[in-house]
Amino acid sequence: xxxxxxxxxxxxxxxxxxxxxxxxxxxxxxxxxxxxxxxxxxxxxxxxxx
Amino acid sequence: xxxxxxxxxxxxxxxxxxxxxxxxxxxxxxxxxxxxxxxxxxxxxxxxxxxxxxxxxxxxxxxxxxxxxxxxxxxxxxxxxxxxxxxxxxxxxxxxxxxxxxxxxxxxxxxxxxxxxxxxxxxxxxxxxxxxxxxxxxxxxxxxxxxxxxxxxxxxxxxxxxxxxxxxxxxxxxxxxxxxxxxxxxxxxxxxxxxxxxxxxxxxxxxxxxxxxxxxxxxxxxxxxxxxxxxxxxxxxxxxxxxxxxxxxxxxxxxxxxxxxxxxx
Lengths: 50, 265
Fold this sequence. Notes:
The structure holds two protein chains of two kinds. Chain A is of the alpha+beta class. Chain A is built from two helices and one strand. The two termini of chain B are about 15 Å apart. The longest helix of chain B has 16 residues, at about 85-100. Chain B is an alpha/beta fold. Chain B folds into two domains: about 1-85 and about 225-250, Response regulator (Rossmann fold), CATH 3.40.50; about 85-220 and about 255-260, 3-Layer(aba) Sandwich (Rossmann fold), CATH 3.40.50. Chains A and B meet through strand 1 of A and helix 1, strand 1, helix 2, strand 2 and helix 9 of B.
């Protein structure tokens, strides 16, 4: 019984610290998986060679 | 190009794209790349302003993250992937078209080049000259460098037209410069000169409309590669194996004969 209480307490601690296995707050609002940098020579919308 | 990248990236909710614009300044572009690295990007897509000055920074970034070089090449193969059209082939296509325009009689050509030091300018010029070399009666009487800019092309073309009274064709490395040359010829009342450009963008003032309005005799659609760059970026980031090192995109010649197929696209 004591071991079960300890396990539940440990799990609740994980949840409160945001490390729970079913997702953090950040994931719930949409995580940025990849950040891509685009370095243009000049105004790209004028054309590939403009 | 940015629009194509943005459109393709918007299909993925988990990606953010940061754009920088070097305004044709290679030193600024190096700083732009350094800033992007500080922001923690996972992949760099770069269209280098000039090959030589940008080569070291591209190689440095490539040691840390994947790099897609778009449209303009660098002086080494120190990148993950190159995506672009074959500028030499496009230049050759323009040369063959000009040869057909001038026929057996031949004629005088003024070439308006893009930024010196950029690979498209060099390759387009090389391809064009290769194609017309087979026709001894076609002479390039003047070559000017207008850095891809319409207004600069207009100014330089005025000087060329005053110097050469019998110009038959202007070959410009992009459509805006061809338009600038056309404006110069119109302002000086010079009739009968034919203009050929490259890019073939749709939309107001783009090469497709210029062909339709008979300002240009022909343009060669240069695919921006933006869409493909984002698609391959995902495949690279997802560690897909055996991706090619070079992706060559197709170009299409647009003249009065087929311009209706591309209007409104």
